Each structure stands twice: as C-alpha cells, then as structure tokens.
C-alpha cells in the first residue's frame, strides 16, 4: 500500500513510465517482496535482466568483494576484470574484440558508430545507411530510436537521426532492397522482444546473412534481450547457424548490475581507433566483475542445459492450455523468452496475474510476455501455469 509520503515523493519523478503500484524492496531467485512483505513470483526478471534470479549469491559475493577493493577507475588505465570479461566473451562467441558501455541503447549506439566508421575510415566508402526492421526495438537514445522502426517510439522527437531505412521483418521478398551503394550495415533482433515476441525465420536470416557477406555489409545482431542464455543458447545467433560481424549485449550480462557491450570480429573492430568512442563508466571494475561471474555461473552450473528442459516444459504446458482456451491465439518465442498472444488486451491479464501475485509483462497490445529467470524451478512454473489458467 502507498502511504501519503510515498505519493508526494512520486511527484519528484518525471513520469516517463506507466508504473504499477507495487513497491518492491527485496528479491531472491524468482521471488520478490514488496514493502509490506507481500510475496510475488517475478516472471519478468526485471525485463530479461536478472537471468540468474534476484541477488544471485555467486554474483553477489564476487561483486561485494570487488566493492571493497575498487569501484571505479577510468578507461585511461588498464582494468583487469574488463580484460577477463572481454576474453571470456571472445572465447565463447564468434567475436574477437569487445567494447564496454552501460546499457543496451549504448551498445547499439556503439554498433551504429562502428558500422559507419568501418565503412568510412576502413573501406574508404561513403556508405552510412543502416537497415533495420518493422516492429524492432533498439533503444531510446536519438540514434537508437531512429533505428527503431516503431512510430510510437519516434513520435515527438524529430528530426530523427538520418540514415536508417526500415524493411519488413521476416519478408524474403524485401531482402534485395537491403543493398544500395549507401548501405553499411543491417541491425536486427533474432526474436523481436518489445515488438511482440516474434522469432525470425531461419531461412530469412540465412538469406540476409548471404546478402550481407556478398556485398560487404556488416551483419549486426541486437542480442540485448535475447542474449545471456535467454533463448536457450548463450546468444540466439548460435541457433541460426550464422556468423555476425557485431553483436550488442546488455541486460542479462551483469544480472542486474548495469553493463553493456558490443562484441565484434577483428575486421569490424578496425572501425574504432583510440579516441573514436568511449564511456566514463563503461567496463568499470564492479560491472565487469558482475559480468564475469554471471558468465562463470552459467558455465559452471550448466544453466543453458536447464533452460532447454524448462523451456520444453513451459511451452508444452502453454500449448496444452491454448487448446483449452480460445482466448489464447498463439504461444511463441524461444527458450524462456515467451509470448502468449491473446484476444483482447494483454494488460488485463498482466493485472489479473498481479492479483495472484505473479509478475509478467506485455509486448505490444495483445501479447503477454513471460520472462522467468533461467534458474526458475518446475514448481514455480507450475504455480504460474495454475494462476494463468485461472485468469484466461
Ligand atoms: C532488443 C533491445 N535492444 C535494446 C534495448 C535497450 O536497452 P536499454 O534499455 O538497456 O537501453 C532493449 C531494451 O528493452 C531491447 O530489448
């Protein structure tokens, strides 16, 4: 319950969010508690961020120990935990080099700058244009909202950053339009998260990759939401059998401690030279320690194998429910990035589930988005299904 004082404090915030009146103050694993001690199951993971559950003990211990050593040190000095995290990302992905920042939008900003700079300073061409796709979401900074092909995100912010061209998603026939003399890169999500949990078709992605390789266009994958195990592999691109040139990552990388990064091939990374890009906080010792321990935990605890089992289980339960309830139009997604398309407004289901103490999200008007931590238990999934059954 809100007190009068809480309401007064709320007015000190610029209202950029439509917030639910729930004041969370504690979390552990899939569980969160509000200020009155009411318990909820968090099937949002802070929007695909606390992938290893809230206050993961392994990550917490390492971050706490880093906090007692050094919090911040500028990128004018060498930062050992940053180097180790970069090495781990390189060892476990297609990439050869990493740049660190603090969020998903910043990671995509870095990718956009790298693509233009690679074309203009390495290839000595005039190419600047980046192709993105309808219903995409790439962030809220001026360049990333210009990249985002959704009018509602762009409205009121003109003039937009120029040089983005939007094509239909999953449309093989539109692919040839990608190539123009000005195109330097393509940027896409392999499962559109905010846009309605829409997985890309394998055939389409492979055709896209072939065109990019043929014409020397950088293939950049936005894995801000799909990355760090969310779709069942460390990154979603692995399931498509493609080799990107650049991948952007954030959210789950620090399990809740802010961090972002781009991972690039040696060739694409030539686009940045000293002074070309930077960030005061990017890759600081605390954030990179969180990133390193998150990846170590995923590896040591075989988290990805568990995602596959849990994903198969929750999808089979949801598909069964779909057969029983006409209101469920579609169940889709990958791993534990799940969209349930409903007849009617998904927000009504989110609110009904909240009354049952389950937290979920929407993705567009009709899609209920379900993002449990990768460490969710079968009992917790059962409880979610039980509550969902009672509200749909
Ligand atoms: C695919 C994708 N890209 C970029 C972003 C922006 O990330 P951030 O909010 O950390 O800036 C998001 C956030 O939801 C996202 O889902």
UniProtKB/TrEMBL annotation:
GO molecular function annotations of the record: identical protein binding; N2-acetyl-L-ornithine:2-oxoglutarate 5-aminotransferase activity; pyridoxal phosphate binding
GO cellular component: cytoplasm
Keyword hit for Endoplasmic reticulum: no
Keywords: Amino-acid biosynthesis, Aminotransferase, Arginine biosynthesis, Cytoplasm, Pyridoxal phosphate, Transferase
Cofactor names: pyridoxal 5'-phosphate
Broad class of enzyme this protein falls into: transferase
Record-listed N6-(pyridoxal phosphate)lysine modification sites: 251
Binding-site residues, pyridoxal 5'-phosphate: 104-105, 137, 222-225, 280
CC cofactor note: Binds 1 pyridoxal phosphate per subunit.
GO biological process terms on file: L-arginine biosynthetic process
Assigned EC number: 2.6.1.11
InterPro entries, sorted: AcOrn/SuccOrn_fam, Aminotrans_3, Aminotrans_3_PPA_site, Class-III_PLP-dep_AT, PyrdxlP-dep_Trfase, PyrdxlP-dep_Trfase_major, PyrdxlP-dep_Trfase_small
Recorded metabolic or biological pathway in which this protein acts: Amino-acid biosynthesis; L-arginine biosynthesis; N(2)-acetyl-L-ornithine from L-glutamate: step 4/4
Main location: cytoplasm
Cellular localization per UniProt: Cytoplasm
Binding site for N(2)-acetyl-L-ornithine: 140, 279
Catalysed reactions listed for this entry: N(2)-acetyl-L-ornithine + 2-oxoglutarate = N-acetyl-L-glutamate 5-semialdehyde + L-glutamate
Database matches in PROSITE patterns: AA_TRANSFER_CLASS_3 (PS00600)
Assembly and binders: Homodimer.
Entry similarity comment: Belongs to the class-III pyridoxal-phosphate-dependent aminotransferase family. ArgD subfamily.
Additional free-text comment from the UniProt record: May also have succinyldiaminopimelate aminotransferase activity, thus carrying out the corresponding step in lysine biosynthesis.
HAMAP family registered for this protein in UniProt: ArgD_aminotrans_3 (MF_01107)
Protein name (database record): Acetylornithine aminotransferase
Gene behind this protein: argD
């Amino acid at each position: 319950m809100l007190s009068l004082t809480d309401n007064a404090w709320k007015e000190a915030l610029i209202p950029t969010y439509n917030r639910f009146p729930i004041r969370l103050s504690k979390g552990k694993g899939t569980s969160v508690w509000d200020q009155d001690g009411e318990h909820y199951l968090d099937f949002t993971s802070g929007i695909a961020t606390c992938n290893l559950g809230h206050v993961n003990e392994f990550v917490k211990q390492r971050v706490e120990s880093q906090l007692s050593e050094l919090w911040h040190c500028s990128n004018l000095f060498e930062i050992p935990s940053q180097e180790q995290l970069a090495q781990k990302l390189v060892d476990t992905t297609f990439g050869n080099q990493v740049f660190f920042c603090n969020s998903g939008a910043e990671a995509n900003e870095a990718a956009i700058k790298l693509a233009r700079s690679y074309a203009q300073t390495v290839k000595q061409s005039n190419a600047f244009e980046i192709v993105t796709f309808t219903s995409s979401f790439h962030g809220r900074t001026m360049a990333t909202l210009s990249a985002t092909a959704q009018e509602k995100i762009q409205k009121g912010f003109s003039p937009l950053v120029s040089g983005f061209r939007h094509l239909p998603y999953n449309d093989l026939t539109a692919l040839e339009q990608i190539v123009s003399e000005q195109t330097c890169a393509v940027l896409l999500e392999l499962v559109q998260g905010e846009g309605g949990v829409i997985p890309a078709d394998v055939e389409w992605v492979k055709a896209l990759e072939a065109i990019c390789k043929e014409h020397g266009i950088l293939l950049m994958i936005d894995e801000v939401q799909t990355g760090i195990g969310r779709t069942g592999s460390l990154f979603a691109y692995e399931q498509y059998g493609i080799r990107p040139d650049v991948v952007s990552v954030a959210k789950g990388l620090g399990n809740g401690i802010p961090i972002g990064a781009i991972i690039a091939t040696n060739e694409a990374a030539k686009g940045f030279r000293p002074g070309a890009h930077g960030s005061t906080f990017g890759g600081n010792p605390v954030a990179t320690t969180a990133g390193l321990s998150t990846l170590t935990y995923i590896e040591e605890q075989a988290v990805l194998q568990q995602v596959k089992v849990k994903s198969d289980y929750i999808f089979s339960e949801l598909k069964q429910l779909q057969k029983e309830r006409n209101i469920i139009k579609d169940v889709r997604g990958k791993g534990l990035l799940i969209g349930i398309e409903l007849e009617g407004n998904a927000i009504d289901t989110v609110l009904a589930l909240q009354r049952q103490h389950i937290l979920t999200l929407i993705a567009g008007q009709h899609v209920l988005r379900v993002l449990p931590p990768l460490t969710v238990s079968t009992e917790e999934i059962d409880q979610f299904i039980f509550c969902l059954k009672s509200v749909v």
